[in-house]
Design brief:
Largest sheet: 5 strands, mixed
Number of helices: 26
Radius of gyration: 31 Å
Structural class: alpha/beta
Strand content: 5-15%
Helix content: 55-70%
Distance between the termini: 75 Å
Amino acid sequence: MFNVQYSMFNLLYFCTTKRRNMKGLTPRIIDCMKGYSRETFMKDLMAGIIVGIVALPLAIAFGIASGVTPEKGIITAIVAGFLISLLGGTKVQIGGPTGAFIVIIYGIVNNPEYGLQGLLIATILAGIILIALGAFRLGVVIKFIPYPIIIGFTAGIALTIFTTQISDILGLTQTAISTTGEAIRIPLKTPGDFVGKWISYAENIGTFNLWNFIVAIGSLLVIIFSPKALKKVPGLGKIPGSLWGILIGTIAVLIMKQYGIEGIDTIGDRFHIQAQLPKMVVPSITFELFQQLMPVAFTIAILGAIESLLSATVADGVISDKHDSNMELIAQGVANMVTPLFGGIPATGAIARTMTNINNGGKTPVAGIIHAVVLLAILLLLMPYAEYIPMASLAAVLVIVAYNMSGWRTIRGLLKNPKSDVIVLCVTFFLTVVFDLTIAIEVGLILACALFMKRIMETTEISVIKDEIDLGDASDMAVNEEHLIIPKGCAVYEINGPYFFGIANKFDDLMANIGHEKPKVRIIRMRKVPFIDSTGIHNLQNLIEMNHEEGIHVILSGVNPKVHSQLQKACFYDLMESDHICPHIDVALQKAREFLEK
């Protein structure tokens, strides 16, 4: 067993020192501070305050839905939000806990082998992975993850989040035995899997609480319609619907309790919120835990990278800017390494809060830092009042989050795309919902790669030219001739497309089925081969050796410089005489005639 013994000061010193050594990786705030004015600060201040207020209910809701306490969600928004804005590669990105991580966090926390300690370790490991991705300039690679996979697991997460809130929306309960031996009603505890949850809901539907349901639906309606109703009211129009829903829901429940209506759980009924920042605690990591949690950490890192860079890209389109994806990943990594030391959960860039920042005038990363300070002030001064917030209102907030994540309009459009994209989308969605996100991403990527290779294979054609060369394309001809007749005893094979492992055997099959009469000379025309991989080279080597054993000459024609260089590096030309490599098809045909006349 080994302990990770370092202080936060040492961690930040390490990260900032490494950053100075990484040429070109500079936090965006440094550029923004050049010419920073009082006017810009006032815009950042107003935006930061509003975003901090918007982030409060979301942070609490994400913390509870993830299976941890409400203040851990707020702590994550404070620490991660501060670091992401301070070190990030965007002007307006707001970081914090998001709905995308709920499924992963809940699964780790409720796993008896891991628990909260396992979550903290997995998050730190994910932070290390993110820093490595940024340091090695791999930010652009994340953008190549197929879109159907992103939509599939995002929609799957949305459905899972919605499913986890059914119990609080309906007010379902179960019977438990207290320490005194008395039967009491407690909130329904459901299995971790999707199917198990719905079975549990069906079995306990008899405990449905009408008043709880009314509060949930009422809060949901307030969240949806309050922004439109108050849009033109000065001062009130900028307050988000989620905050109105929680405020009105809380007031309604307090009044209902005055009239003796019970059974509507609040945050205080389930949690005791500590209005203080926790002490820094460094978790102990065993090699066994490291091995077990690495796949989960990888999933957290990839998901965090995708969501943060998607958010940054959306923000770029709105403010006409360009973010530094590598610096953004490093900032996300530092945030996810530091936040767990204070008991926080995984964090990433949040699209909704980033757009709120833009729409309210945020200009620089200072707005994100102010948003973190606002949340810190709320945590220290106002948190005791959060215990009165009804769980039904928080459930309504998360239902809206799930709806916005679902991307059902995008899915409807993707269903019109090629079947391969639809298959990747559906498989990723199904695995995310029924199993878990780690499996969904892994299988989705494998399936997408397999389908991609299939498409590439379909684009590469191998044909046999028997009689006369087409003169319509002179790209592989040295002289202008009226006719290029293929002499008897010679076969010309044209490869059109990349020659890689997916089609290597296709060439073998073509020659095996060409007929019983074998030619004395085989010309392989490679003018339209843009690249060749090691399997293709190996396939060609085997082809040369087999033909040599049968006394058949093999001539290569029109090899482009890139492929020629790859063949040279692989020592491929050791198998062939230099006169068997021809720059043009007419030269290759002339060489074939010489061999045939011998």
